[in-house]
Specification:
This is Acyl carrier protein. Residues 8-88 form the Carrier domain. InterPro entries: ACP-like_sf, PP-bd_ACP. Pfam families: PP-binding. The chain contains 3 helices and no strands. The longest helix is centred in the N-terminal third of the chain and has 21 residues, at 5-25. Helix 1 (5-25) crosses helix 2 (46-60) and helix 1 crosses helix 3. By secondary structure, the protein is mainly α. The protein has helices at residues 5-25, 46-60, 77-87.
Length: 88
């Protein structure tokens, strides 16, 4: 299997999300995958989502457009990674 630049970029985004989640939640996360649900599995709330987005903006040197962000983008780590990849 060949690793493409897209795959590498996606992996970097997922890694940044996991790091930001650890920062926001104040704990190490070892079992997070792209299928991990942000609210159901990690118990995020609206305040922690704000912290997550701010941490991602800093880590990835980007701005999240709140107008373009929908609830579906925050369902899983993978859906958030896809939103960020499209926003860059």
């Amino acid at each position: 299997m060949t690793v493409t630049a897209h795959d590498t970029g996606r992996q970097q985004i997922v890694s940044a999300i996991v790091t930001a989640l650890e920062e926001v939640l104040g704990q190490e996360l070892t079992d997070v995958t792209e299928q991990t649900r942000l609210f159901d599995d990690l118990s995020l709330d609206s305040t922690s989502v704000l912290g997550l987005l701010m941490a991602l903006e800093d880590a990835l040197d980007m701005q999240v457009d709140p107008e373009g962000l929908e609830q579906s983008h925050l369902e899983t780590v993978g859906s958030l990674a896809a939103f960020i990849a499209e926003s860059r």
